[in-house]
Task: inverse folding
């Protein structure tokens, strides 16, 4: 099994403070069991961890008993295989609570269940279904489902899963697959677990001197680095670990793969240091979508980024870091940026413009030569980017606008020809496939390439932006 996936399940405790606080990172997932709602040919055994098809070759749909997290690997052991049938296990996800599907379960997951809204599944190859083999799969933030078998990583299996709400695992015990078992990752052999944890986990601590008590939040979101990065940095472990290339001390820029939600807490761990290099870890906030950047044009001096037309904040972190130190970055709804190192409640604080999509970025210079994105803590009410600030427009267009401020207001009539995002440019494009005309081409293109790529009117996923010439 690929270490890049299984690493997120390693159970470990990291002590980062001697006195005020102990930071613990550990597996927070309850072991998966099968839901009591399942196909009529399914029997549950071993306290609900085993599902067995008792008759025929179909009516074997089963679900996890709880929602699974984005980035959480699901481990399944093949307990019994039959040579009497063709086809094999189907795996996938559903947005529909299994408790509501008792009277709606079809004979097959594919295509019957997948033809119903909010369900995604695909059949694995028959050759993969071998007795005692362990299959794993998970869905990433982009809706791509990755999978592997035993020690072999197979990459993306299928895509298109909507990760905006709760997801339950779906298994169709079909064909040659007769019995399967959910495997508790904490019981796997060490060979399935990597030392570099990806940690979709819990982060807790205590700050005894503070009336506000302590940092106490759950890492509940998978987060990786963007594919655009400086020439002197390499990414590994599903782009969650960034390493500066040996012998270099510049042009090691890295960005988060998506803009941050307001109130989201991003957790970074120091993985490697090299004291022979001078300088400080550099970090910052930008409104520039990394997809638009040319890696060959990154400046040697990060301060030169301030000359670019986008919004850039560049900071030097002069703290001394050791391997295992943890840094938490967050942006409040008021634009306050708070950076916390280990048990220091407010290591740094400054303000940014929260009305724009904002990416976190680093330049790995100085002693810090490798960092890991452990994940992030995202409150349910967190806002992804500026488009979400205008969610009400889908039911209230046209709206009033304050032309002097460029933001929604109480005076001045907003016309249908004015972009609902920037309120400054004229509508000059149409969204495919919904056909709505509500944005300028620049804003629509940025929204399409963001993690919240939905039409602000109907919330249909933006597949393309078509420029309109009047």
Result:
């Amino acid at each position: 099994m690929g270490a890049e996936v299984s690493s997120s399940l390693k159970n470990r405790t990291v002590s980062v403070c001697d006195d005020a606080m102990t930071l613990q990172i550990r597996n927070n997932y309850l072991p998966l069991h099968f839901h009591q709602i399942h196909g009529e040919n399914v029997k549950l055994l071993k306290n609900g961890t085993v599902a067995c098809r008792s008759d025929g070759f179909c009516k074997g749909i089963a679900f996890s008993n709880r929602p699974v997290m984005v980035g959480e690997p699901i481990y399944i052991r093949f307990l019994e295989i039959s040579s009497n049938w063709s086809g094999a296990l189907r795996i996938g996800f559903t947005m529909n609570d299994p408790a509501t599907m008792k009277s709606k379960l079809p004979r097959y997951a594919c295509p019957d269940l997948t033809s119903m809204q909010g369900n995604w599944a695909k059949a694995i190859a028959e050759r993969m279904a071998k007795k005692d083999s362990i299959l794993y799969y998970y869905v990433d933030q982009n809706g791509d489902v990755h999978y592997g078998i035993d020690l072999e990583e197979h990459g993306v299996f299928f895509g298109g899963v909507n990760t905006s709400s709760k997801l339950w695992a779906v298994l169709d015990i079909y064909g040659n697959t007769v019995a399967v078992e959910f495997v508790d990752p904490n019981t796997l052999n060490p060979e399935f677990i990597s030392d570099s944890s990806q940690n979709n986990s819990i982060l807790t601590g205590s700050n005894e001197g503070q009336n506000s008590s302590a940092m106490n939040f759950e890492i509940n979101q998978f987060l990786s680095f963007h594919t655009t990065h400086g020439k002197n940095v390499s990414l590994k472990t599903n782009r969650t670990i960034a390493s500066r290339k040996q012998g270099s001390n510049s042009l090691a820029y890295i960005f988060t793969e998506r803009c941050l939600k307001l109130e989201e807490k991003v957790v970074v761990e120091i993985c490697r240091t090299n004291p022979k290099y001078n300088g400080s870890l550099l970090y910052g906030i930008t409104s520039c979508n990394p997809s638009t950047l040319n890696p060959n044009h990154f400046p040697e001096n990060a301060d030169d980024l301030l000359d670019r037309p986008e919004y850039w904040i560049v900071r030097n972190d002069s703290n001394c870091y050791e391997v295992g130190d943890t840094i938490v970055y967050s942006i409040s709804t008021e634009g306050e940026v708070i950076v916390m190192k280990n048990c220091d409640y407010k290591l740094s604080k400054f303000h940014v413009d929260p009305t724009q999509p904002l990416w976190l970025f680093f330049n790995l210079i100085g002693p810090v030569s490798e960092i890991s994105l452990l994940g992030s803590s995202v409150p349910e009410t967190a806002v992804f980017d500026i488009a979400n600030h205008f969610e009400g427009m889908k039911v209230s267009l046209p709206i009033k606008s304050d032309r002097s401020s460029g933001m929604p207001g109480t005076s001045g009539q907003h016309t249908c020809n004015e972009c609902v995002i920037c309120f400054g440019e004229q509508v000059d494009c149409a969204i495919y496939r919904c056909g709505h005309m509500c944005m300028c081409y620049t804003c629509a293109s940025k929204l399409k390439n963001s993690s919240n790529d939905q039409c602000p009117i109907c919330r249909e996923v933006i597949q393309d932006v078509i420029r309109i010439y009047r």
